[in-house]
């Protein structure tokens, strides 16, 4: 497996996201559709969202910078305060 500097790549993706009409930009850094583990890094510009979508498996969320609200079923988490408080 290749080593990836998440902070550096994240800054590049944020720059792309700010230019994208959707306000987000992502790349798969490991795995893909044919693998059981897929790791995708997504940059989301301020004021934009990754809308609700179907996920048939588990997910791990690693917030590098900023804040996010995550809704999973009836649960709402505000990151990072949901973890640090």
Low-confidence stretches: none
Please report the total strand number as a whole number.
4
The description of the largest β-sheet is: 2 strands, antiparallel
Relative helix content: 10-25%
Number of helical elements: 2
General form: globular
Approximately what portion of the residues adopt beta-strand conformation?
A: 25-35%
Cα Rg: 14 Å
The ordered H/E elements are: HEEEEH
Strand arrangement within the widest β-sheet reads 1-2
Instruction: Calculate the terminal CA-CA distance, rounded to whole Å.
Output: 34 Å
* Nearest-integer average pLDDT: 85
Classification by helices and strands: alpha+beta
Overall domain count: 1
Question: What can you tell me about this protein's structure?
Answer:
It comes from Nocardioides immobilis. This is LuxR family transcriptional regulator. There is one protein chain. This protein is of the alpha+beta class. The protein has one domain. 21% of the residues lie in helices and 27% in strands. It has two helices and four strands; from the N terminus they run αββββα. The chain has helices at 6-19, 81-84; strands spanning 24-30, 39-44, 68-72, 75-79. A two-stranded antiparallel ribbon has the order 1-2. The chain has a two-stranded antiparallel sheet with strand order 3-4. The longest helix has 14 residues, at 6-19. The N and C termini lie far apart (34 Å). The model has no long low-confidence stretch (mean pLDDT 85).
């Amino acid at each position: 497996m290749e080593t990836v500097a998440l902070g550096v790549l994240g800054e590049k993706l944020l720059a792309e996201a700010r230019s994208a009409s959707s306000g987000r930009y992502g790349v798969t850094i490991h795995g893909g559709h044919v693998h059981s583990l897929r790791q995708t890094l997504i940059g989301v510009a301020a004021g934009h969202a990754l809308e609700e979508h179907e996920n048939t498996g588990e997910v791990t969320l690693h917030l590098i910078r900023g804040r996010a609200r995550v809704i999973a079923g009836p649960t709402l988490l505000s990151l990072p305060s949901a973890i640090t408080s």
